[in-house]
UniProtKB/TrEMBL annotation:
Signal peptide: none annotated. The chain crosses the membrane at residues 44-65, 77-102, 134-158, 170-198, 218-236. This is DUF624 domain-containing protein. It comes from the Bacteria.
C-alpha cells in the first residue's frame, strides 16, 4: 500500500513454525528484551530481602577492605566482632534463601519459555521453598563470608610479607576452591529446591555431584556469581546503583540459562513438569464435567 493508506499494520514475514531456538548470547538478549520487566521486579524483591545482609556486610567488610588495600592492622576488627558479624550474616541469610528460590522459579520459567504470572509464581515458590531453603542459605552465607574474610586477611597480610612462597599459594588456592564449591553447591541447591522435593542431605549430595559432573556449565555459572560479588565488594559505593538497575536479575538469567540444560538432562525435570501439567488439566476437565 502507499504511504497515505489507512492500513499501517502490514504483517511482517513472521517466524517459521519450526524455527530452531536461538542459542548463546542471541538467546540471552532475546529473553532479556522480552522479559526485562519481570527480571527487574524479581531483582528488586531480591534486593529488598538482601537489605539486612547488606547492612551487616558493610559493617564487617568496610574495615576489612581498608586492611585488604593498605595492610593497616589498626583497621582490623577484633576476632569476636568478626565472628558476631558472620553469625548475623547467617541470620540474614535465612531471609535471602526463600527470595533466591522464588527468583530462580520466576527466571527459570523465562528460560523454559513457560508463561506465568509474576506475583503468583513468586509467592507460590516462596511458600513452597522457605522451609528447606532458609537453613541452607544461612549456613552457606556464613561459609562464603568466612571465605571473603580469609581473602581480605590473606591479601592484607601480603603487604607485610606475612604470606609468601608455596605455602601462600596453596592457602590462596584452598580459599578460592572452597569459595567455588560453597557457592556452586548453594546455587545448585536453590535450583533443586524449586523443582524437587527431596531431603536436604540429598539436595547437597546432588549439588556437589552436579557441580563436578557438569563442569563446563556449572562452574562458569558459579564463577559469574563470584565475579559479580567481587565486583560489588571492590566497588562497594556503587553496589546500591547496581541493585537498583536490576543487575542481579540479569546475572541470574545468564546463570540459570547455563544451569538448566544439565539439570534437565540429569533429573528429567521437563518431562516431570509436563506430566504434572497434564494431570492438573485432566483434573480440571473432570471437575468441570462433574
Amino acid at each position: 500500500m502507499g504511504i497515505f493508506s489507512q492500513n499501517f499494520n502490514r504483517p511482517g514475514p513472521g517466524v517459521p513454525k519450526n524455527a530452531p531456538k536461538k542459542k548463546g548470547i542471541a538467546r540471552y538478549f532475546e529473553m532479556l528484551f522480552r522479559d526485562f520487566s519481570t527480571l527487574w521486579k524479581a531483582s528488586m524483591l531480591l534486593s529488598i530481602c538482601m537489605i539486612p545482609m547488606l547492612v551487616v556486610i558493610f559493617l564487617l567488610f568496610a574495615p576489612l577492605f581498608d586492611y585488604f588495600v593498605s595492610g593497616n592492622v589498626a583497621s582490623l576488627l577484633p576476632l569476636s566482632m568478626i565472628l558476631i558479624f558472620i553469625l548475623l550474616i547467617g541470620v540474614s541469610g535465612m531471609l535471602l534463601g526463600p527470595a533466591l528460590c522464588a527468583c530462580h522459579s520466576v527466571i527459570l520459567k523465562i528460560v523454559r519459555d513457560e508463561p506465568g504470572f509474576f506475583w503468583h509464581d513468586f509467592k507460590k515458590a516462596w511458600r513452597s521453598c522457605w522451609k528447606q531453603s532458609y537453613l541452607i542459605s544461612a549456613v552457606f552465607s556464613m561459609l562464603i563470608a568466612l571465605d571473603f574474610v580469609s581473602l581480605c586477611l590473606f591479601f592484607g597480610g601480603s603487604h607485610q610479607n606475612a604470606t609468601d612462597g608455596l605455602t601462600s599459594t596453596l592457602l590462596l588456592g584452598c580459599i578460592v576452591l572452597s569459595l567455588v564449591i560453597f557457592f556452586g553447591v548453594w546455587f545448585i541447591s536453590c535450583l533443586q529446591i524449586v523443582f524437587m522435593n527431596i531431603p536436604t542431605a540429598g539436595v547437597l549430595k546432588n549439588s556437589l555431584l552436579l557441580l563436578f559432573g557438569r563442569l563446563p556449565r556449572m562452574v562458569p555459572a558459579t564463577l559469574i556469581h563470584i565475579v559479580f560479588l567481587l565486583a560489588c565488594f571492590l566497588w562497594m559505593p556503587l553496589a546500591p546503583i547496581i541493585l537498583l538497575i536490576g543487575v542481579p536479575g540479569l546475572i541470574m538469567l545468564w546463570t540459570d540459562m547455563l544451569a538448566w540444560p544439565p539439570m534437565d538432562e540429569v533429573f528429567k525435570l521437563e518431562e516431570q513438569l509436563k506430566e504434572l501439567r497434564e494431570k492438573e488439566l485432566s483434573g480440571e476437565k473432570s471437575s468441570i464435567s462433574d
